[in-house]
Design a protein that fits this description.
Distance between the termini: 13 Å
Helix content: 10-25%
Number of helices: 12
Shape: globular
Strand content: 25-35%
Length: 553
């Protein structure tokens, strides 16, 4: 077997395991707890009501590192029930819950709080509960990869605060319906901070109200649906500057909040925002949140895709902290955080996964958007070299799709294996304008919606005009890299797919003795007659596959 593996030619695969069976994809199912189910599933106590509006009204105490206040949760009754699940993680505490001025009883099961409603909940009615809470939220140990609050000081000794809670959940610091499937329709965020500090949150600033106790309340209104993890607070000694972008839906307001001493660097680096908008509106369609504007906000961690309030901590330099993830040189042509995190406005904030197991819908498209940005501004050669270069980050450790109903994402390969999967699919589609129309129509069809992987897969197959079920099964649900196995026999080429799922069927472009051929391999041997007794077959490197010459075996 070792000698056989040495003959495998990975077409552009700089790393990544090749599995000759599906065993790695069929690893033992992990054990999950009741808490996993309460967090990750649409429980009966969630299913009967639909979020319509939040008013998150909080006071942030930087010295004590505490947060307290009330979240008013407005909802529509879908079917009558009297028990409601709200999520809030320790050490945060719910202190009281009211409906129509009447105090309600509640119980707790770990991170899930169950409120017993007194008022009869009638189908179609729109009601509200006020959830009062306070506490000292968990501190993020490695933001943004570990959840919690970030309590830092800037270089001048001023408080510099932000939240980082993707994956771990917004319920780390405020009570909410903490599941991706139900986005609130609109939201008011009111944040009270010391008056010498600025709070920046999602949406548009409505007003700043100064109090008599040396604090000020910043009121931000979000007019569009927003997922819980996209809600943010950013507190610091900020200065503000702005510009306008003439986009596909008119004038888009772009606002920037940066630390006072970084203003000059920010004005230079943030010129990439307009270039990002040009590229992504071309590829994906109009920016999805014109009503809320676009913001880029400096934070004390690397960055995150908070809706209409994208956070930035890349040090005002190109690349990923000054490094090129593709190792091609092209990654230093743009600021990774500005481009990647803003790409999430289309894939994560506009189109949002219903279950975190399908998080590839966020990360694969957005990782792929990096190369599309390059293509728009620097040409196809740079873009293609970049996306192929990111294969060095692929691990093929476990499937891209995770476990459903338990808040468990899949492999981090959702980034660059996912990007290369989409790049491969572009080659299968074969028409650049058709490919662009698929990306744009995705953002139209699923505008401001939560979706499943299955919906996205089926829609792309419909628009591509071919069955893609085996394609997505292969790249999303196994760790196997498909291999084009071939041999030259009697002046013919014989070829087939191996290391592939049973329903895998994908065309592939090859070069045989400097002549191009489009093959349609299956799992059984096929024959290309009269191809010559060649010894050189090269698979188009833009297909994420391996190749294996078995001539003479």
């Amino acid at each position: 077997m070792d000698s056989l593996l040495k003959k495998i030619a990975f077409t552009g695969l700089l790393s990544g395991a090749l599995c000759l069976s599906g065993s790695a994809a069929m690893a033992q199912f992990p054990e999950f707890s009741l808490q996993d189910s309460l967090r990750g599933s649409i429980t009966a106590e969630r299913a009967w009501w639909n979020l319509t509006y939040y008013h998150l009204n909080i006071a942030v105490q930087p010295e004590e590192q505490t947060i307290g206040g009330v979240n008013t949760i407005q909802y529509e009754v879908l079917s009558p029930s009297q028990s409601m699940q709200i999520d809030l993680q320790p050490p945060m505490q719910i202190t009281s819950v009211l409906q129509d001025g009447q105090e309600l009883s509640f119980s707790r099961e770990g991170n899930a709080w169950f409120i017993q409603l007194i008022k009869e909940q009638q189908a179609g009615a729109v009601n509200a509960v006020e959830v009062h809470f306070n506490g000292k939220p968990k501190v993020s140990e490695m933001p943004p990869w570990s959840g919690g609050l970030v309590w830092e000081k800037d270089a001048k000794g001023n408080h510099f605060i932000a939240n980082a809670n993707q994956g771990d959940g917004a319920s780390l610091w405020w009570p909410c319906k903490d599941h991706m499937y139900d986005e609130v329709d609109s939201m008011l965020i009111s944040v009270r901070v010391p008056e010498k500090l600025t709070n920046v949150s999602n949406g548009r600033l409505r007003e700043v109200v100064k109090k008599n106790d040396g604090t000020a309340v910043w009121h931000w209104f979000v007019a569009n649906p927003i997922n819980n993890y996209g809600v943010n607070i950013n507190i610091g000694d900020y200065v503000h500057f702005s510009e306008q972008y003439a986009g596909e839906k008119g004038i888009l307001d772009c606002n920037y909040y940066v630390l006072r001493y970084n203003l000059k660097k920010a004005k230079r680096q943030f010129k990439q925002v307009k270039k990002m908008l040009q590229a992504f509106e071309h590829w994906f369609g109009p920016y999805p949140f014109y009503e809320d504007g676009y913001k880029l906000v400096e934070v004390p961690y690397l960055g995150m895709e908070h809706q209409s309030s994208v956070t930035y901590g890349n040090g005002y330099r190109n690349g990923y902290r000054g490094n090129d993830l593709s190792r091609t040189g092209h990654g230093l042509k743009f600021d990774f955080i500005i481009i990647h995190e803003s790409g999430h406005e289309w894939f994560a904030n506009n189109i949002t996964n219903r279950d975190i197991a399908d998080m590839w819908v966020h990360e694969s498209f957005t990782a792929y958007s990096e190369s599309l940005y390059l293509e728009y501004h620097f040409g196809k050669k740079a873009a293609y070299e970049y996306v192929r270069g990111t294969r060095s980050s692929i691990m093929n450790d476990r499937p891209i799709i995770g476990y459903y109903g338990v808040n468990k994402e899949g492999s981090q390969d959702m980034y660059y294996k996912g990007a290369n999967m989409l790049h491969t699919l572009r080659q299968v589609v074969g028409d650049d304008e058709k490919w662009r129309s698929i990306l744009r129509s995705l953002n139209e069809e699923f505008y401001h919606q939560t979706v499943s992987s299955e919906q996205v897969e089926n829609y792309m197959a419909e628009k591509a005009g071919r069955d893609l079920s085996g394609f997505f099964d292969q790249y999303l649900r196994t760790v196997m890299v498909p291999v084009l196995e071939y041999r030259f026999m009697n002046n013919n080429l014989e070829y087939r797919w191996v290391n592939a799922v049973d329903n895998f069927a994908m065309p592939v472009q090859v070069n045989i003795n400097e002549k191009k051929h489009l093959l349609e391999p299956a799992l059984q041997w096929k024959v290309l007659e009269g191809s010559g007794e060649g010894t050189e077959l090269i698979v188009d490197p833009d297909f994420y596959v391996g190749s294996l010459n078995v001539t003479g075996q």
